[in-house]
Amino acid sequence: MKKNILIVSALMLGSFSLQAQKYFTKNGHISFFSKTSMENIKAVNDQVMNVLNVQTGELQFSVLIKSFHFEKALMEEHFNENYLESEKFPKSIFKGNISNLSEVNFTKDGQYPVSVTGSLTLHGVTKPVTSTGKIVVTAGKISASSLFNIRLADYNISIPKLVKDNIAESVEITVLSDYDQKM
Protein backbone atom coordinates (compact mmCIF):
# COMPACT_ATOMS: atom_id res chain seq x y z
CA MET A 1 0.00 0.00 0.00
CA LYS A 2 2.79 2.45 0.93
CA LYS A 3 4.60 1.46 -2.23
CA ASN A 4 1.50 2.30 -4.33
CA ILE A 5 1.14 5.70 -2.62
CA LEU A 6 4.81 6.45 -3.34
CA ILE A 7 4.42 5.46 -6.99
CA VAL A 8 1.26 7.58 -7.41
CA SER A 9 2.94 10.53 -5.67
CA ALA A 10 6.00 10.20 -7.90
CA LEU A 11 3.80 10.11 -11.02
CA MET A 12 1.87 13.17 -9.88
CA LEU A 13 5.06 15.11 -9.17
CA GLY A 14 6.50 13.98 -12.49
CA SER A 15 3.46 15.13 -14.41
CA PHE A 16 3.45 18.47 -12.54
CA SER A 17 7.12 18.88 -13.39
CA LEU A 18 6.42 18.23 -17.09
CA GLN A 19 3.46 20.61 -17.06
CA ALA A 20 5.54 23.32 -15.44
CA GLN A 21 7.85 23.15 -18.44
CA LYS A 22 5.19 24.57 -20.76
CA TYR A 23 4.63 28.26 -21.27
CA PHE A 24 1.83 29.83 -23.27
CA THR A 25 0.21 33.02 -24.45
CA LYS A 26 -3.18 33.81 -25.93
CA ASN A 27 -2.01 37.30 -26.85
CA GLY A 28 0.98 36.64 -29.04
CA HIS A 29 1.68 39.11 -31.83
CA ILE A 30 2.15 38.32 -35.50
CA SER A 31 2.33 40.98 -38.17
CA PHE A 32 3.16 40.93 -41.82
CA PHE A 33 4.54 43.65 -44.02
CA SER A 34 4.43 43.94 -47.80
CA LYS A 35 6.61 46.63 -49.34
CA THR A 36 6.37 47.70 -52.98
CA SER A 37 7.14 50.89 -54.86
CA MET A 38 3.38 51.45 -55.15
CA GLU A 39 2.23 50.76 -51.59
CA ASN A 40 3.20 49.41 -48.18
CA ILE A 41 0.73 47.07 -46.49
CA LYS A 42 0.85 46.04 -42.85
CA ALA A 43 -1.51 43.82 -40.87
CA VAL A 44 -1.37 42.97 -37.17
CA ASN A 45 -2.84 40.11 -35.15
CA ASP A 46 -2.60 40.25 -31.34
CA GLN A 47 -4.72 37.16 -30.64
CA VAL A 48 -2.13 34.50 -31.41
CA MET A 49 -2.14 31.33 -29.30
CA ASN A 50 1.34 29.96 -28.73
CA VAL A 51 2.78 27.18 -26.55
CA LEU A 52 6.47 26.71 -25.79
CA ASN A 53 7.76 23.56 -24.09
CA VAL A 54 11.07 24.60 -22.54
CA GLN A 55 12.00 21.00 -21.84
CA THR A 56 11.71 19.78 -25.45
CA GLY A 57 11.92 23.05 -27.42
CA GLU A 58 8.61 22.33 -29.10
CA LEU A 59 6.70 25.40 -30.35
CA GLN A 60 3.12 25.60 -31.60
CA PHE A 61 1.26 28.63 -32.91
CA SER A 62 -2.37 28.94 -33.91
CA VAL A 63 -3.53 32.07 -35.73
CA LEU A 64 -7.08 33.00 -36.72
CA ILE A 65 -6.80 34.66 -40.12
CA LYS A 66 -9.79 36.95 -39.48
CA SER A 67 -7.95 38.43 -36.48
CA PHE A 68 -5.50 40.30 -38.74
CA HIS A 69 -6.31 44.00 -38.83
CA PHE A 70 -5.31 46.56 -41.44
CA GLU A 71 -5.18 50.32 -41.58
CA LYS A 72 -7.82 50.30 -44.31
CA ALA A 73 -11.04 48.29 -43.95
CA LEU A 74 -11.12 47.51 -47.68
CA MET A 75 -7.67 45.88 -47.46
CA GLU A 76 -8.91 43.68 -44.62
CA GLU A 77 -11.97 42.68 -46.62
CA HIS A 78 -9.90 41.78 -49.71
CA PHE A 79 -7.37 39.93 -47.56
CA ASN A 80 -10.07 37.73 -46.01
CA GLU A 81 -12.29 37.23 -49.06
CA ASN A 82 -9.91 37.19 -52.03
CA TYR A 83 -6.40 36.31 -50.91
CA LEU A 84 -6.43 34.20 -47.74
CA GLU A 85 -10.02 32.98 -48.16
CA SER A 86 -10.48 32.94 -44.39
CA GLU A 87 -13.91 31.27 -44.55
CA LYS A 88 -12.32 28.28 -46.30
CA PHE A 89 -8.97 28.42 -44.45
CA PRO A 90 -9.73 30.02 -41.05
CA LYS A 91 -6.41 29.23 -39.32
CA SER A 92 -2.70 29.24 -39.87
CA ILE A 93 -0.68 26.82 -37.75
CA PHE A 94 3.03 26.51 -37.08
CA LYS A 95 4.53 23.45 -35.41
CA GLY A 96 8.25 23.30 -34.84
CA ASN A 97 11.21 23.00 -32.52
CA ILE A 98 14.07 25.12 -31.28
CA SER A 99 17.05 23.44 -32.95
CA ASN A 100 19.68 24.75 -30.54
CA LEU A 101 17.71 24.30 -27.30
CA SER A 102 20.83 23.32 -25.33
CA GLU A 103 22.14 26.88 -25.80
CA VAL A 104 19.13 28.42 -23.99
CA ASN A 105 19.09 28.64 -20.19
CA PHE A 106 15.46 29.32 -19.24
CA THR A 107 16.47 29.77 -15.58
CA LYS A 108 19.07 32.51 -16.17
CA ASP A 109 18.41 36.06 -17.32
CA GLY A 110 19.79 36.72 -20.76
CA GLN A 111 19.22 36.92 -24.50
CA TYR A 112 19.62 33.68 -26.39
CA PRO A 113 19.75 33.45 -30.20
CA VAL A 114 17.72 30.48 -31.44
CA SER A 115 17.13 28.62 -34.65
CA VAL A 116 13.65 27.24 -35.23
CA THR A 117 12.58 24.62 -37.76
CA GLY A 118 9.10 23.37 -38.40
CA SER A 119 6.14 23.47 -40.71
CA LEU A 120 3.81 26.36 -41.46
CA THR A 121 0.29 25.69 -42.69
CA LEU A 122 -1.27 28.66 -44.43
CA HIS A 123 -4.08 28.79 -46.99
CA GLY A 124 -4.33 24.99 -46.90
CA VAL A 125 -0.66 24.48 -47.80
CA THR A 126 2.01 23.14 -45.42
CA LYS A 127 5.64 24.04 -46.06
CA PRO A 128 8.86 23.61 -44.06
CA VAL A 129 10.13 26.82 -42.44
CA THR A 130 13.48 27.61 -40.83
CA SER A 131 14.02 30.88 -39.02
CA THR A 132 16.24 32.54 -36.48
CA GLY A 133 14.95 34.35 -33.46
CA LYS A 134 15.67 35.36 -29.92
CA ILE A 135 14.53 34.09 -26.51
CA VAL A 136 14.80 36.64 -23.69
CA VAL A 137 14.62 35.57 -20.04
CA THR A 138 14.10 38.37 -17.51
CA ALA A 139 13.28 37.71 -13.86
CA GLY A 140 11.73 34.33 -14.70
CA LYS A 141 9.62 35.71 -17.58
CA ILE A 142 10.18 34.37 -21.08
CA SER A 143 9.64 36.21 -24.34
CA ALA A 144 10.47 35.27 -27.91
CA SER A 145 10.79 37.08 -31.22
CA SER A 146 11.49 36.21 -34.83
CA LEU A 147 11.53 37.86 -38.23
CA PHE A 148 11.35 35.90 -41.49
CA ASN A 149 9.93 36.04 -45.01
CA ILE A 150 7.50 33.84 -46.91
CA ARG A 151 6.64 33.79 -50.60
CA LEU A 152 2.90 34.06 -51.16
CA ALA A 153 3.03 31.79 -54.23
CA ASP A 154 4.48 28.99 -52.04
CA TYR A 155 1.13 28.93 -50.21
CA ASN A 156 -1.03 29.16 -53.34
CA ILE A 157 -1.96 32.75 -52.58
CA SER A 158 -2.46 34.38 -55.93
CA ILE A 159 -2.47 38.12 -56.53
CA PRO A 160 -4.69 39.43 -59.34
CA LYS A 161 -2.84 41.21 -62.16
CA LEU A 162 -4.77 44.40 -61.43
CA VAL A 163 -3.05 44.81 -58.02
CA LYS A 164 0.14 42.85 -58.71
CA ASP A 165 2.33 45.96 -58.29
CA ASN A 166 0.71 46.79 -54.94
CA ILE A 167 1.49 43.52 -53.13
CA ALA A 168 4.98 42.08 -52.70
CA GLU A 169 5.68 38.50 -53.80
CA SER A 170 7.43 37.91 -50.48
CA VAL A 171 6.10 39.29 -47.17
CA GLU A 172 7.97 39.89 -43.94
CA ILE A 173 6.55 38.11 -40.89
CA THR A 174 7.25 39.38 -37.35
CA VAL A 175 6.48 37.17 -34.35
CA LEU A 176 6.51 38.38 -30.72
CA SER A 177 5.39 36.37 -27.68
CA ASP A 178 5.45 37.06 -23.96
CA TYR A 179 4.77 33.77 -22.18
CA ASP A 180 2.99 32.88 -18.97
CA GLN A 181 3.78 29.60 -17.25
CA LYS A 182 1.11 27.01 -17.90
CA MET A 183 -0.36 25.48 -14.76
Write the layout of secondary structure elements.
Layout: H1 2-19, E1 22-35, E2 40-53, E3 58-64, E4 69-70, H2 73-83, E5 91-98, E6 110-122, E7 125-138, E8 141-151, E9 170-181
Fold and architecture overview:
The protein is α+β, with helices and mostly antiparallel strands and 183 residues long. Helices cover 16% and strands 52% of the residues. It contains two helices and nine strands; from the N terminus they run H-E-E-E-E-H-E-E-E-E-E. It has helices at residues 2-19, 73-83, and strands spanning 22-35, 40-53, 58-64, 69-70, 91-98, 110-122, 125-138, 141-151, 170-181. The chain has an eight-stranded antiparallel β-barrel. A hairpin with a 4-residue loop joins strand 2 (40-53) and strand 3 (58-64). The chain is elongated and about 50 Å long. The two termini are 29 Å apart. Mean pLDDT is 88; it is low at 2-20.
Short structural summary:
This protein has 183 residues and is of the alpha+beta class.
Which stretches are poorly predicted, pLDDT < 50 over at least 5 residues? 2-20
Which percent range fits the helix content? 10-25%
- Structural class, from secondary structure content? alpha+beta
Write the H/E string, N to C: HEEEEHEEEEE
Task: Please give the alpha-carbon distance between the first and last residues.
Answer: 29 Å
How much of the sequence lies in strands comes to over 45%
Shape: elongated
Q: What is the arithmetic mean of pLDDT?
A: 88
Care to count the β-strands? 9
> What is the topology, as strand order, of the major beta sheet?
1-2-3-5-6-7-8-9
Global Rg:
20 Å
Tally the helices. Answer: 2
Oligomer: single chain
- What about the largest sheet? 8 strands, antiparallel, barrel
